Every structure is written in structure tokens, then in C-alpha cells.
């Protein structure tokens, strides 16, 4: 959520940076609501002061006298007016907050301008996509089905479209990938692993920006919601908290299932494991001082990329343009892995610096030094990585002419020494 004062003091800048996203922002309505709130508060405080003076005057009057009765009537009128002004202030507060919750995070300075993902800017590439020299290139669905480790038809009978059963070596491969990712992020890069709830309440989703704007993408379970990403519980771990010091950034990670309706993706990536209602992901979240967030962002992207390098998977990094960046992000880099069946790159991680946007919504503050006034922290999040898409990339990039799949060396210890996936083996 935005700081109202900062918005009103920098109207033209906020209008431009929000408009660059392609988002409609009624900044005049915001200014009017802020003015209504200020007027109500000013009138309320003036009347309360007058009420206090009148109450003092009553003490010097004789009960039953004409002056006493007139002042008592006036105090009753003041009390009614004070209640009305307080209600006007409350309504203005609610309207202002509701409007601000719908406004995306203004993009950071330097974010490339553009209307869609076609305008994203490639930053770098790693690895050389494999040449199949005329060999047939099969996608992960055909490979995994033939190997007997994936069953989409059974999942459709049990749960419907966009679900999958991974069995035998497929299930083990998913577990191996998650374990490798967790070891890299915890042992090598200092993230603290957290086992988180998979159900959260609405205020947590408001805090990270999924609600109220993106409710149609969420699965609801009674009074709770299934998490669309571990970013939600990890970030809200510090909800309404004041962190003392924060000299060193807080680095957390979690491996969880993620649940998404994919309401706006009808007809996109309907085959296989690319876009599922339920998928697995290792998520990284960082909370830091504002002056540290740019360096932490670069570090997070680097740590996600190292997973792909360990898996021997070609990838590229792109910076998202203003028209493609997520609601809560001020700046974002996507990491895209090479898929032979597509002859192109597919997103496998999105690393976002949200500045203080989520911290304001969730009330995450830190105290720079003892006795200092608390300030809003910066929050960052990124996949390290999406396990299902990594599984897809491992299968497709490791496929052999006989239908087997050669695994990356780094995965072999996690697979109990298995180097090649074969049908029935």
C-alpha cells in the first residue's frame, strides 16, 4: 500500500510511474478523500477543544439556571456533532484504504517502459541450448508418460484438469529437486528454512498484495485460503512486528505446494506440468533495510540462477518492463529456462523487490537503533525454484534417443545413485 502523504506530495511522479504499468489510478479521487479526511479531523479536534472548554464553564454554573440549561443543550449538540465528524473521518479512512489497496506499487526508477512481455529486456544468458542434430525432440509429457512416471489422465479423473500424478522415479525426482534447491539456499546461501501453514486468512493475503485485487486466482477453504505461494506466510511471519536493528537482512526459504486457479490463463499451457492448479516451489523471502534491498535483489537473482547452473540447464535473465511487472513489485527479474520442445525459454523464477509496499500493508517495521522511531522495511521474494518446471526442464534437456533421460550430476546423490531414468527402472 502506498503512503498517502508521499503520494500527495509527489502526485505527478506517482501518476506517471503508475500509468506506465497500464493501470488506471484515480489520483484526483484519492486527493479528494484525503482532503475530506483532513477536514473531518480538523473540525473534530476543534469541536473537542470547544467541548472541553464548555464542560469547564459548566462547573461554575448553578444547576437549573438558564445559563446552565443552555450550555447543557449546547454540549449535547456538540456531542452529536463530534460523533458525526468521527463517523465521517472513519468513512473517509475506509474509502481511502480501499482505494489504496487497489493501486499497484509504482515502478522503481530505471524499470524499462513497455506494454507487455514482448518489451522485457534480456540481461544475460548462461549455457548453450543442446542441438539434437535432427533427432526427434519430445516434450516432457510424452517422455514422462512413456517412462511410466506421469499420469495426467488419472489426475483428471480424480481432480480435473491441470493436476497430475507423479509416481515412482517421477515422485522421487520431484523430491530430489526440492531437496537440492533447499540445500543450496540454506547451506550455501544462508536462508533459514521454515515449515509454513498452507492455509492463511484474508489479512495475510492483503498484506502481500493478492487481495483484494486478485481474489479470483485463489482457492478458498472456509474462512481460509490455500496459499498461492510461500511468499504469503513467510512475509506475514513478521506481520505487525517491529524488528530490532535489522543490521543483517532476514533470509528465509520454504518448500510448499502452491495453489492457483489460473483464472486468467484459459487456453495457455494446457498440456503437461507448465501451468497447474497445484504445483511445488521453493520460495525465498528477504526482509531488509531500504538501503540494502537493491543488493539483496541482485543476490536473490544470483542464488536462483545457481540452481539452474547446478542442474546444467541453459537459462536467461530478463528484466520485466512496466507493463508486465507484478502488482506488488517495484522491480522484477524473471529467470527463464530453456525447453527443447518449445525451442525457447519459459519462466521458472520471478524475483521481485517490493520496496516498502508490502511492509506498509502488513505493518512490518524495524527500529534502526535503540529508541529510534520504527520505519517500514523492504521485502523481496523469488522462486528458488519452481520444482515442477525444473522437472520439465530436466526431462526435456536430458532426453536420449532411446527415450531414457540422463540426469544432471548434482541430482544423482539425491536420486540414490540413479544416473539415467529408464522405462520400468
Task: Describe the protein in words.
A hairpin with a 7-residue loop joins strand 14 (364-367) and strand 15 (375-376). It contains twelve helices and 18 strands. 38% of the residues are buried. The radius of gyration is 27 Å and the shape is elongated. The chain folds into two domains: 4-101, Serine-tRNA synthetase, tRNA binding domain (Helix Hairpins, Orthogonal Bundle), CATH 1.10.287.40; 117-421, 2-Layer Sandwich (BirA Bifunctional Protein, domain 2), CATH 3.30.930.10. The chain is α+β, with helices and mostly antiparallel strands and 425 residues long. Helix content is 39%, strand content 20%. It has helices at 4-9, 11-19, 27-58, 66-101, 140-147, 152-158, 169-188, 202-208, 231-236, 293-310, 357-362, 387-397, and strands at residues 121-126, 150-151, 165-166, 192-193, 199-200, 220-221, 224-226, 241-244, 250-259, 278-288, 315-319, 331-339, 344-353, 364-367, 375-376, 378-386, 405-406, 420-421. The chain starts with a helix and ends with a strand. Helix 5 (140-147) packs across helix 12. The strands form five sheets. The protein has an eight-stranded mixed beta sheet. Strands 5-7-6 form a three-stranded antiparallel beta sheet. Strands 8-14-15 form a three-stranded mixed beta sheet. The longest helix is centred in the first third of the chain and has 36 residues, at 66-101.
Amino acid at each position: 500500500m502506498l503512503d498517502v502523504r508521499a503520494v500527495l506530495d509527489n502526485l505527478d511522479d506517482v501518476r506517471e510511474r503508475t500509468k506506465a504499468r497500464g493501470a488506471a489510478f484515480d489520483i484526483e479521487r484519492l486527493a479528494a478523500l484525503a482532503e475530506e479526511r483532513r477536514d473531518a479531523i480538523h473540525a473534530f479536534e476543534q469541536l473537542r477543544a470547544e467541548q472541553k472548554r464548555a464542560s469547564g464553564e459548566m462547573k461554575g454554573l448553578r444547576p437549573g439556571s438558564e445559563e446552565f440549561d443552555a450550555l447543557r443543550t449546547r454540549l449535547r449538540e456538540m456531542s452529536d456533532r463530534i460523533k458525526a465528524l468521527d463517523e465521517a473521518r472513519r468513512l473517509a479512512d475506509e474509502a481511502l484504504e480501499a482505494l489504496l489497496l487497489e493501486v499497484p506499487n509504482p515502478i522503481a526508477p530505471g524499470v524499462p517502459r513497455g506494454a507487455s512481455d514482448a518489451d522485457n529486456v534480456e540481461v544475460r544468458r548462461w549455457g548453450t541450448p543442446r542441438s539434437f542434430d535432427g533427432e526427434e525432440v519430445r516434450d516432457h509429457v510424452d517422455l514422462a508418460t512413456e517412462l511410466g512416471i506421469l499420469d495426467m489422465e488419472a489426475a483428471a479423473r480424480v481432480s480435473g484438469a491441470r493436476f497430475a500424478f507423479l509416481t515412482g522415479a517421477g515422485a522421487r525426482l520431484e523430491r530430489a529437486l526440492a531437496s537440492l534447491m533447499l540445500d543450496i539456499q540454506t547451506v550455501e546461501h544462508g536462508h533459514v528454512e521454515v515449515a509454513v501453514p498452507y492455509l492463511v486468512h484474508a489479512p495475510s493475503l492483503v498484506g502481500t498484495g493478492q487481495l483484494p485485487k486478485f481474489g479470483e486466482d485463489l482457492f478458498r477453504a472456509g474462512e481460509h485460503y490455500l496459499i498461492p505461494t510461500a511468499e504469503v506466510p513467510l512475509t506475514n511471519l513478521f506481520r505487525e512486528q517491529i524488528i530490532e536493528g535489522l543490521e543483517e537482512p532476514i533470509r528465509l526459504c520454504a518448500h510448499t505446494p502452491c495453489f492457483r486457479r489460473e483464472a486468467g490463463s484459459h487456453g495457455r499451457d494446457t498440456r503437461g506440468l507448465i501451468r497447474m492448479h497445484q504445483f511445488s516451489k521453493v520460495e525465498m523471502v528477504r526482509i531488509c533495510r531500504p538501503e540494502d534491498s537493491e543488493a539483496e535483489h541482485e543476490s536473490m537473482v544470483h542464488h536462483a540462477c545457481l540452481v539452474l547452473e547446478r542442474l546444467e540447464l541453459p537459462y536467461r535473465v530478463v528484466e520485466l518492463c512496466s507493463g508486465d511487472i507484478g502488482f506488488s513489485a517495484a522491480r522484477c527479474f524473471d529467470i527463464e529456462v530453456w525447453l527443447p520442445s518449445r525451442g525457447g525459454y519459459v519462466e521458472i523464477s520471478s524475483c521481485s523487490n517490493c520496496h516498502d509496499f508490502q511492509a506498509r500493508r502488513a505493518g512490518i517495521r524495524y527500529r534502526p537503533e535503540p529508541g529510534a522511531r520504527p520505519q517500514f522495511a523492504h521485502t523481496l521474494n523469488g522462486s528458488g525454484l519452481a520444482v515442477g518446471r525444473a522437472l520439465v526442464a530436466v526431462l526435456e534437456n536430458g532426453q536420449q534417443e532411446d527415450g531414457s533421460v540422463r540426469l544432471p550430476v548434482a541430482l544423482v546423490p539425491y536420486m540414490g545413485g540413479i544416473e539415467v531414468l529408464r522405462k520400468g527402472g
